[in-house]
Each structure stands twice: as structure tokens, then as C-alpha cells.
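Sequence dictates fold. Below is an illustrative record:

_____
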Amino acid sequence: MSAGAEVWSWGGAGLGLVGGLGLWLALVRLPFLRRTSVEDRVAPYVRDAVPPSRLLREDPSRGPLVVVERLLAPVMADAVRAVERVLGGRAGVRRRLDQLGRRTSVEEFRAQQVVWGIGGLAAGGAAAALLAASRGAAVVPLVLLVLLGGAGGVLLCDWWLTRAVRRREERMTAEFPTVAELLALSVSAGEGAVGALERVARTCAGELSGELRRTLAEARAGASLVQALQGMADRTSLPGLARFVDGVAVAVERGTPLAEVLRAQAQDARDEGRRALMERGGKQEVAMMVPVVFLVLPVTVVFAVYPGLAVLRLGL
């Protein structure tokens, strides 16, 4: 079979697959085969309720792709539920989203994973098509390549979330000593705990100042300052920040000098940062030995031994 005929056969197979998938989706979405949701069962009893104002909608549907979005919404919802069943870990995802400081829901993140998975399927399909056109590989490895591309896209999205959380916490760790020093200076100047937090959150920029603004918003919404600070510590996994919150909570509840507590916390944070820097430097030093031992040293030995071997060979 020539290459052109093989490409046409693969194209026909792809068109047949797409047509079969479309027919299956049309059959599954027929009214008598579709499962009735709770919203559809309750809707006839609440039709007389006053509809909410359009100004109160969080995300009004506008734009030229509204019809496409409505058509793809059921398929996307089914895909999100499938990813949720396979991966699970809803609590872990919610925890990482809180650590990232985003108001994204778990369902929205699962939808992003579905989109990444579709991109991985497309990349795997393109790679499979190139392999089929160039080498004529078997069908089973090509299908496995496409499936691995989709799974890789989903897992890559989850890895990106973990990496983003780790980078954000590294920035917060770098900002923490400065923020603690500024809080100590504000308290020493005569301001209270809330006033010092407001001043630092207003004058500073960064991840930690954003968390302080969120903490102050929770305190204004009715929570106590200790509860709001404890919520900030729970949203992160930084032990230094947790100790800082505990120290501030004890100082506020028992009336101990807050400035001394903040200075001690800032000094502890700087010492911990110094230890982390020394540990990272030690790891980098060990990593630098790898090219020296496996690349530079063999080349040096070859340059030192080869002239002697050449002289011995000439002598023989």
C-alpha cells in the first residue's frame, strides 16, 4: 500500500470515529435516555418564584460563543465528573487552591484539567498521525500514544498547580521577615495589632501582604483577629507563619508585649531562611560534583594517559 493510500485510509478511519462519536452523543442525550436531574424535578414547583436580577449574576453569558458553550456544557460536566471519579482527592485539590490564594472552585479546576487533557489528546493524536504516516506503526501503540497524551495533559495540570503553590510559598517565606519587622516597628510606634496589620497590608506588595488583606477582611466580616490569623495559617503550610500566628494570638489574648514577640518571630524567620539557604547551597554543591566526576575527570584522565599510550605504541 502506498503512503497516499495509507494516509487516506487513516483519514477515513478518523472521520468514521468522529461520526460514530457524534451519533453516540446524540443517542445518549435523547430525552428518554437522559437521567433527570434534581433541578429538573424541582423546577415545576418553583416557577412562580421571582427571578433574580440580571445585575446580580456573577458571570452573565455574552458573546458570540454562547450557543457553543451551552452545547458543550453537558459534555464538559460529564467529563469533569469522570475526572473526579478517576483522580479523586477533592480535599487535596481544595487545599492546594486555598494555598494558591485563588477563589477557583474544585469543579473549575477539574474543567481546566479536562481542557488540558483534550490538548494532550490532540498532541498525542498529532504524534500518532505522524508516526503512522512515516513508519506505519500498528494501531494499538498509536491508540496508547493518544491515551497517554490525554492522561499526561490531566496530570500535567495537577503538577502545575502543585508547582505554583510551592513557588508562592517560597515567595511568602522570603517576604515574611520583612513583614514581621514592619509589624514590630508599627507596634513599637504605638499602633495596635489591627492597625499594624492594616498599615503593612496597605504599604506592602506581595503574596504575604495579600494574605494579610484577606485576613483583615475576614476580621471585619465578624471573625475575631485570632480566628482570622488562624485561618491564614491554615491556608498555608509554612511552619514559620504558623508559629508567628501562635505568637501573635498569645500576645493578643494575654496582653504580653507584642513588639518583642514580633521581633523574635522576625529573627527566627531570618535564621530559618539562613539555614534553608545553607542547605540549598550544600545540595547545589553536591549537584555540581556530578559533571565534574562524570565529564571533566574522565576527559582529564584521557588527556593525561593518551600521550603515554601513543608513545608506547610507537615504541612497540
